[in-house]
């Protein structure tokens, strides 16, 4: 299992379609900030993305844009077009009926899929926050796989059938992975200095991350990890921190604590069994490590996290 697959699976990053828009000029839509990432894919027409204190961005058919922090923004037919607030109730009703959210009164020239992504709050290994404030992949830079998925998206939007909402949510999940791949392939212009995400393409740090994610319970040392990927200890000790931003030991501990937090919340596994599966020789050592990382003992974390989870809305209920 590669590191991106592991983080996506454990972090529970999932996309939820908020609306499929069908707009006739002139039109404009304002969207409030959301606790997650906002995503838009243009399948037809021209769209202007406007964000306060930033230049307007011109989006063409086949363009996709991700706003990882969920910043407030607007979509419009022109840079100076008036906007109306996003109508959550109307969007939900349209999705439930397999319809589009209509803007304007004429013949629609523009179609957009709007979605949001959310990460499991129990997971501290960052993903969305490592990306630029605006991640734009224009159609000309889209990989063949991304282009094919967008065509499938456009087809599903234009010909709604039973189960369309479920299909669109799955396509949105796939689009996130392809968006990340395209961003990594083009060489991020403004990546955060040292992160596991940008390190995925490094020939030394990438394989090392894969080993840590695949076998988090292994008794890893720099020497054994270096041997597993076929490099010298000195090379790994120098390269991993430079690319990832931290040592293998610190990264592994953080990943283990994320895995433990999820199992404490979502399963009835004993603290001892969780500790052993993550490479701790004693429950006491695990308790100390977990308390140091989360500022709360494992047992109390289990109680509190389950109480919080029970009070949250069902998945997909957060609105864009």
Written account of the structure:
- There is one protein chain.
- By secondary structure, the chain is α+β, with helices and mostly antiparallel strands.
- The protein is 44% helix and 17% strand.
- The chain has twelve helices and eleven strands.
- It has helices at residues 3-11, 88-97, 144-158, 164-185, 196-199, 205-214, 222-229, 233-244, 248-266, 271-277, 283-294, 298-311; strands at residues 14-23, 28-31, 37-44, 47-50, 57-59, 64-67, 73-76, 84-85, 101-103, 110-118, 135-137.
- The strands form two sheets. It has a six-stranded mixed β-sheet with strand order 9-1-10-3-6-11.
- α6 (205-214) crosses α7 (222-229) and α9 crosses α12.
What is the radius of gyration computed over CA atoms, rounded to a whole number of angstroms? 22 Å
Order of helices and strands: HEEEEEEEEHEEEHHHHHHHHHH
In CATH, the architecture of the largest domain is Sandwich
Instruction: Return the CATH class of the largest domain.
Output: Mainly Beta
> Strands across the major sheet, in which order?
9-1-10-3-6-11
CATH H-level superfamily of the largest domain: Jelly Rolls
- How many discrete structural domains? 2
Helix content: 40-55%
Helix tally equals 12
Number of E-state strands = 11
| Shape, principal axes of CA atoms | elongated
Low-confidence stretches: 314-319
The secondary structure category is: alpha+beta
| Overall residue-averaged pLDDT value | 88
Largest sheet: 6 strands, mixed
DSSP strand content: 15-25%
């Amino acid at each position: 299992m590669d590191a991106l697959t592991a983080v996506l699976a454990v972090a529970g990053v999932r996309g939820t379609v908020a609306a499929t828009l069908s707009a006739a000029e002139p039109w404009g839509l304002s969207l409030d900030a959301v606790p997650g990432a906002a995503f838009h894919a243009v399948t037809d027409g021209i769209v202007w993305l406007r964000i306060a204190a930033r230049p307007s961005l011109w989006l063409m058919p086949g363009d996709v844009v991700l706003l990882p922090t969920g910043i407030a923004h607007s979509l419009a037919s022109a840079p100076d077009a008036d906007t109306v607030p996003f109508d959550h109730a109307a969007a939900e009703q349209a999705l439930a009926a397999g319809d589009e959210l209509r803007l304007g009164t004429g013949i629609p020239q523009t179609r957009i899929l709007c979605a949001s992504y959310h990460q499991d709050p129990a997971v501290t290994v960052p993903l969305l926050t490592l990306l630029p404030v605006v991640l734009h992949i224009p159609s000309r830079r889209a990989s063949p796989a991304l282009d094919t998925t967008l065509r499938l998206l456009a087809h599903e939007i234009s010909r709604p059938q039973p189960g369309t909402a479920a299909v669109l949510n799955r396509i949105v999940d796939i689009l996130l992975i392809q968006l990340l791949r395209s961003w990594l392939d083009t060489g991020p212009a403004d990546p955060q200095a040292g992160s596991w995400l940008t390190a995925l393409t490094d020939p030394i740090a990438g394989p090392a991350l894969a080993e840590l994610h695949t076998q988090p319970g292994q008794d890893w040392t720099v020497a054994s990890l270096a041997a597993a990927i076929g490099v010298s200890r000195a090379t790994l000790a120098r390269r991993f921190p430079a690319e990832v931003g931290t040592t293998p030991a610190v990264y592994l501990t953080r990943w283990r604590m994320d895995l433990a937090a999820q199992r404490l919340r979502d399963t009835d596994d004993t603290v001892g069994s969780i500790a052993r599966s993550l490479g701790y020789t004693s429950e006491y050592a695990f308790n100390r490590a977990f308390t140091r990382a989360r500022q709360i003992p494992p047992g109390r974390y289990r109680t509190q996290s389950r109480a919080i989870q029970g009070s949250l809305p069902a998945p997909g209920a957060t609105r864009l």
